[in-house]
Each structure stands twice: as structure tokens, then as C-alpha cells.
């Protein structure tokens, strides 16, 4: 066990609220190397801004402790990354809008890592027949699982799946879906496959104006379908959705950093040398993660920290006026909410750390 401090702290600054409350994020990012000074500043200010009442009331001046190593064995992870690497290169050269659909289709392929052979064959046949895969996570009941309105109630040999999802990409269009749902007695959300013929029966509506030009349209989905035990995702255990998000988030971060680079090259975004260093660090760290062929339990928090850093760099660039166009500003801010908002990332990172016992200043 050791306490976490930032390098170069003086005796008068080490108990700064700015320094202490950023430790859960900076600790996870430090595995990727020395963070640029401006990125530390951006993250530290964000952590202070995101503290809710419970966080502030419980915050002490004492440093956090790194978690105990549980010595869990890592799991081999075979990621089909060749096509994704090619798409990421094209995003850097031509921007995200032109390649967003193909990029997201590869996210669907990554979900195949968590399907049984029978589920994969049926899903593959549906996709080959023209049905795109929708991923419905955000719930009309809010971000907390206990408040979700999407509930899988056991019925007979399967479940009655009551769906009330919002902000799903292309969710207004026909297709098949993976739906995250609350199940009675479970502390984790469950995931169910909803097949094209079932998805057609659901009520779907447009949600807001599109993003990335006319490329990304959001939709809301509501209704009830009957699903079987065989439609429930089980590969990966009860935390299957967390494992999936941990797998795809670094690819999303890489795409966003490539898009930032493209916007800068087009003169649509201004990067100072310090901001460029922050972008480069985040991009390199995300690339390191996507090239790994192992999945470790600690990866969940490392990836949350990466998404947090990406979110806050984008917010920093928009808020300081570095992005000229209203539409580009709106697009970048939208991606700070996708696959992990800063508040959600920070909340989970804080919860994963422990406050160290007080140490005398004389030591």
C-alpha cells in the first residue's frame, strides 16, 4: 500500500484540494507515462468542478491509497483490430464524419467477443441480411440502475423485456439490438439480444438534431418483447457490459483524438503546443491499450480515466474558444457524454480508491 502524490508537490501544496481530489484519475493515467503539465491542470480543475455534495462532504486533505493488488489472472483478448486501425488512419486524414458508420460497425464486431457461438451465428446472419446492430444503454429512468425503466421480468422460460431507452444511435431505424436492462436481484445490468422481427414492433422516435452533419441521428425506443434465456448475454459473466465498454472506449478515444487532429489541420480548431502535448498523450495511451491482447480487472479504471481525460480536453478546447464552428463545438461536447460522461467516470474512479490514514507532517 502506498499513498498517491503528484510529483513536485511542496509541503504547502500537497494538501491542496485541487491536488488531492484529482489523484483517483491521475493515478490510473500514470501507467501510460508522465502526464503533460497542462493535462494535469485540466484534469485537476475538472475533478474539483465535478465534486457533488457527498464527495465534498466526505473529502479529506489526506491522500488516496492505491488499491490492493488482487492478483487476478489476465484474460486473453483477441481483438479484430486490423480494419479498425485502417479506419482510424482515415479518420485522421479525412475526419470522423466520413467514417463514423464503418467505425461503429466495427464496434458491433467487437461485441462478438461476448456472444456464444449460437448467438454469434444468428446475429451474423441478421447483419449479413442487412440488419444493423443498435446498442441501447441510456435509460429513460436516468443513469442509476435502480431507477431504470427498462426491466427484464422473469416469465416462463424467459423474460418479459420492458424497454424504455433514450439517445440510441440510429435507434429510430429498423435493425436488431443489444438492450441493457435491470433484472430483479442483480447488482449489474443484464444485456439481451432483440432480433429484427421483435425490434420492428417497438415504438421508435427521433431525438434531437443530428450530429456530425447529418451522419449521427439519435432515437428513443419503447415497448415490450418476450426474450428467451438464450437471448441473454452470458459470456464475460455478470459484468459483461462493463467489459464490452472497457474494450471499445479506447478505440473511441483514439477516434476522437484523430478527429481533433484533423480539425486542427483544417483550421477549424486551434491547438497550443501544451494542448497538442495533452492530445498526443491521450492518443498514445489509448493506442497502447487497444494494442494489448490481455484484459485485466484494473483495465476498467484505466480506461475510465482515459475517457475522462478525453472528455475534459474536448470540453477545455470548446470552453476556451479554440473551436470556431457552433456545429463542431456541439459535436465535440456530444462525445463527452458518449460511452462515459466525466461525472460517471469520476464517480467510479473515486469509489475504487481508499483514503490513506493520516501521516504526521513531521515524517
Q: Can you put this structure into words, describing what you see?
A:
The protein is an alpha+beta fold. A hairpin with a 4-residue loop joins strand 8 and strand 9.
Question: Secondary-structure map with pairings?
Answer:
Elements: H1 17-29, H2 37-50, H3 53-58, E1 64-65, E2 75-76, H4 82-94, H5 100-111, H6 117-128, E3 133-136, E4 151-155, E5 158-169, E6 176-181, E7 190-194, H7 196-199, E8 203-211, E9 216-228, H8 240-265, H9 273-290, E10 294-295, H10 299-319, H11 326-335, H12 342-351, E11 354-355
Parallel strand pairs: 3-6
Antiparallel strand pairs: 1-11, 2-10, 4-5, 5-9, 6-7, 8-9
Q: Low-confidence parts lasting 5 or more residues at pLDDT below 50?
A: 5-12
Binned strand content: 15-25%
The assigned structural class equals: alpha+beta
Please trace the helix and strand order, writing H or E for each element.
HHHEEHHHEEEEEHEEHHEHHHE
Treating each run of at least 4 consecutive H or I residues as one helix, how many helices?
Answer: 12
Strand order of the largest sheet: 4-5-9-8
Amino acid at each position: 500500500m502506498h499513498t498517491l502524490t503528484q510529483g513536485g508537490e511542496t509541503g504547502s501544496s500537497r494538501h491542496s484540494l485541487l491536488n488531492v481530489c484529482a489523484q483517483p484519475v491521475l493515478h490510473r493515467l500514470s501507467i501510460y507515462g508522465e502526464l503533460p503539465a497542462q493535462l494535469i491542470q485540466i484534469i485537476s480543475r475538472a475533478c474539483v468542478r465535478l465534486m457533488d455534495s457527498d464527495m465534498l462532504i466526505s473529502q479529506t486533505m489526506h491522500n488516496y491509497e492505491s488499491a490492493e493488488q488482487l492478483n487476478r489472472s489476465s484474460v486473453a483478448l483477441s481483438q479484430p483490430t486490423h480494419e479498425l486501425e485502417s479506419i482510424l488512419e482515415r479518420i485522421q486524414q479525412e475526419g470522423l464524419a466520413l467514417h463514423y458508420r464503418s467505425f461503429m460497425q466495427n464496434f458491433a464486431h467487437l461485441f462478438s467477443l461476448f456472444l456464444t457461438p449460437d448467438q454469434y451465428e444468428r446475429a451474423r446472419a441478421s447483419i449479413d441480411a442487412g440488419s444493423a446492430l443498435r446498442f441501447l444503454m441510456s435509460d429513460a429512468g436516468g443513469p442509476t440502475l435502480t431507477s431504470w425503466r427498462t426491466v427484464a421480468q422473469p416469465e416462463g422460460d424467459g423474460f418479459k423485456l420492458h424497454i424504455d431507452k433514450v439517445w440510441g444511435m440510429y435507434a429510430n431505424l429498423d435493425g436488431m439490438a443489444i438492450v441493457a436492462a435491470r433484472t430483479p436481484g442483480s447488482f449489474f445490468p443484464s444485456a439481451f439480444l432483440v432480433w429484427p422481427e421483435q425490434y420492428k414492433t417497438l415504438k421508435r422516435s427521433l431525438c434531437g438534431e443530428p450530429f456530425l452533419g447529418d451522419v449521427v441521428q439519435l432515437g428513443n425506443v419503447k415497448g415490450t418483447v418476450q426474450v428467451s434465456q438464450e437471448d441473454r448475454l452470458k459470456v464475460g459473466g455478470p459484468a459483461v457490459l462493463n467489459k464490452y465498454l472497457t474494450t471499445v472506449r479506447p478505440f473511441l478515444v483514439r477516434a476522437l483524438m484523430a478527429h481533433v487532429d484533423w480539425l486542427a489541420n483544417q483550421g477549424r480548431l486551434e491547438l497550443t503546443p501544451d494542448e497538442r502535448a495533452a492530445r498526443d498523450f491521450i492518443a498514445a495511451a489509448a493506442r497502447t491499450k487497444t494494442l494489448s491482447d490481455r484484459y485485466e480487472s484494473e483495465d476498467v479504471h484505466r480506461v475510465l480515466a482515459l475517457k475522462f481525460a478525453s472528455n475534459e480536453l474536448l470540453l477545455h478546447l470548446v470552453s476556451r474558444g479554440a473551436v470556431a464552428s457552433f456545429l463542431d463545438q456541439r459535436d465535440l461536447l456530444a462525445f463527452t457524454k458518449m460511452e462515459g460522461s466525466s461525472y460517471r467516470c469520476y464517480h467510479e474512479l473515486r469509489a475504487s480508491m481508499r483514503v490513506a490514514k493520516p501521516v504526521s507532517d513531521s515524517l
